[in-house]
Write the C-alpha cells for this entry.
Amino acid sequence: MLFCYNNSGDKMTKDRMNELIEILNEANYNYHVLDKPTITDAEYDNYLRDLIIIEEKHPEWKREDSPTVRVGGAVVDGFNKVTHEIPMLSLGNVFNEDEIISFDEKVKKVVTNPKYVCELKIDGLSVSLLYKKGRLVRGATRGDGITGEDITHNVRTIKTIPLKIKEEIDIEVRGEIYMSKASFNKINEERKSKGEELFANPRNAAAGSVRQLDSRIASKRNLDCLIYHLPNPIDYDIHFHIDALEYMKNLGFNTNYKNNKLCNNISEVLEYVAYYTEHRNDLPYEIDGIVIKVNDLEEQRKLGFTARTPKWATAYKFPAEEVLTKLKEIKFTVGRTGQVTPNAILEPVFLMGSRISKATLHNEDYVLSKEIKIGDIVSIRKAGDVIPEVVEVKKERRNGTEKDFVMATTCPICNSKLVRKDTEAAYYCTNKHCPAKKIEGLIHYTSRNAMNIEGFGDRIIEDFYNMGYLKDYPDFYNLYKYKEELMELEGFGSKSINNLLDSIEKSKENSLERLLFALGIRYVGSKNAKILAQNFKNIDNIISATYEQLLSIRDIGEIIAKSVFDYFRNEDNLNLINKLKEYNVNMNYLGKVIEDEDFVGKTFVLTGTLLNITREEAKNIIEEKGGKTSSSVSSKTSVVIVGKDPGSKYEKALNLGITIWNEEEFASKIK
Ligand code: IVH
C-alpha cells in the first residue's frame, strides 16, 4: 500500500508528504525569518502531525530536509573534523569612540568615502553552514578558524536554520548560533528545579548544546541562528556586503535585517553604536558589541587582512559592566598546585547575561589592599570571559556589622598547615595527598588542551575520586574494569559509560605535548609542553635531559627548566610515568619534528599576498619549524617573505639588506 490515512480520513501519500514538507518549511521561513506568520500554530501542528504519521508509516520516504528532524534523534559517536576552505576569521576589537574613529582613518588611507554596515555582535558561537543543491549538508563550528567540528546533527534541530533554501544552489553561509534570553532563563529554571548545575550565560548554554553527541538534547534547548557572512560573494555576482545580506535573506536565511544598517559615514556609525549601547537590554538576545564592516567588497579586498583579522571590519566591544551586591562570605578553595584562594560568595546578581554568585579575591594581599570585609556591599565587574572580580568596597554602605577577613592558616580540605612562598602572595597546601589537589589535578588531566577526555564533568571526577575509582592519572586507564559497576551508578547509562571509556582509550594515542601538559608540571602550560615535545621527541629524552640541556631550548627559561628537571627527579613522578607506559599511553611527539636550519631561531616577516597558502598557514609552518614571525621589519629580521603586491616592508627589507624569499623560494624551503 502506498498510502495511509490520517484521523480525518485523508490519503497520506508520498506526494502529500512532499507537499507537507514544503508547507511547513515555508511557514517556518515566514514565521522565523520574516516575522510574518502565514498560518496559525494549530494549523502548523496539524500539518506536522500528518507528516509524522506518513514518515512513521514510511520511514524509507523520510527526507533530510523534513521539519521533523528538528525534534532531534540523530546521535553521533564523536565530532568529525572539518576544514574551512576559507578560514573563519575573528575580528579586531575597539573599545571607545576614539578607536572607532581611528579605525575609520585607517580605512580611509586605502579607500575614499567608505560606507559601513553596522551589525549587532551576537554573543553566541560562530557556525559555518554548507548547502549543496539547496539542501543543508553540513554545519561546523569555527574551531581554530581552519579546522572546526562537524555539528550537522545538532544544527538540523535549530528552527531558524533552513534545511532547504529557495534555490537549488551550492552555498556556504556563516553566522552565530545563540540562545535567547527567554530560553536561557527557562532552561535555567528547569535545571534549578531538577537540582542541576546552572548555565552561567546564554553563550555557554548555546556552546554546550551544540557540543552534544545526542541531537535530542540540542533540540530541546531552543537555539537560534542569525546569518551575517557570505564567504564567496563573487560566486553570486555580489559586490556589496549589504547585498550579500539581502541575498541570503531571500534565500531563506535568518539575517538580522531589522537591526543591520548601512551607514554613509563614521558619524552614522557612532549614532548606531550610541543607540544600541542604550537599547541593548531591550533585545531578546545578548549582544557584546557592534560589528562595523566596510560595505564595498572591492574595497574590502583592497584593505585585506592582518594575520588573524580582516582590516575591513572591527568589533566595538561594550565596556565591562559593574553591579553592586553583598559579599556574604569568603570561602577558600584549593587548586591543582595547592594554591589556596579566597573567593567572595555573593548575593547572586545578573551581570552581562551571567548569574554571578562568586568572585575571585586572588590572595590575601588583594583582600587587604581593597580593605574588603565580610558583609560589605561591593561592586563587581566582568569583562568578557574573564572571571568576575570585586572592583571596590562601598564603605559608605557599612553599618558596623561587617567582619574582618582572616586568611586561612590550614587547608580547607585536608587541614594541613599552609605555607606562604617567599616570592609570592599566595599560600599553598603542601600535603602531597590533599584530596582537593588530587581532584583538581584529575580534572586538569582530562581537560581539552590536556588529554582531551570527553564526558567527564568536574562533579563526576569528584564522585569517582570519592568512590575510589580514580585516585591518580593511571586509574583512568583502569576504569574499564569497573564498567558494569559504573553503569549501575545513578545518572549513567551504558551509552555514556561507553563514550567515556572510548574517549579514555583514544587519549592513549595523544601526542606527547598533551601528556606533558596534563601531568601538571609547574610552569609547563600547553605552549611550553609543545616546545619540550618538539625538541626532545619522547619522554625518555626529557627524563634524561640535564638542566643545561633543558635551558638551551629556545623559550625555555631557568624557572621552567628547573621545574621540569626537578619533576623528573622525583621517584613518585617516575613511577607514575611508568604506570602510564604500562597502559600503553603514547609518550612520543607525533607532530612534525624540528630539524630545519633555515628556520630555527630566525625571525620572519611576511608581506604581500601569498597565492598558494594563507598567511596563517605560513605562520604556523614557520613556527613548527622553529622560526618566529613578526609584523615589522627591523635589523633583527632574518628573512622577509614577499608575496604579490608587497608593501613598504619590502622596501625597508631591501634598504636593510635583509634576505628576501619570494613565495616559490619559501615553498621550496618548506618542502
Ligand atoms: S563577522 C570576517 N558579524 O564575533 C567576518 N561576527 O569577534 C567575521 N559575531 O567570530 C565575523 N555577531 O562569532 C561578524 N554580526 C556579526 C557577528 C559576529 C557575532 C562573532 C563571531 C566572530 C566574533 C568576532
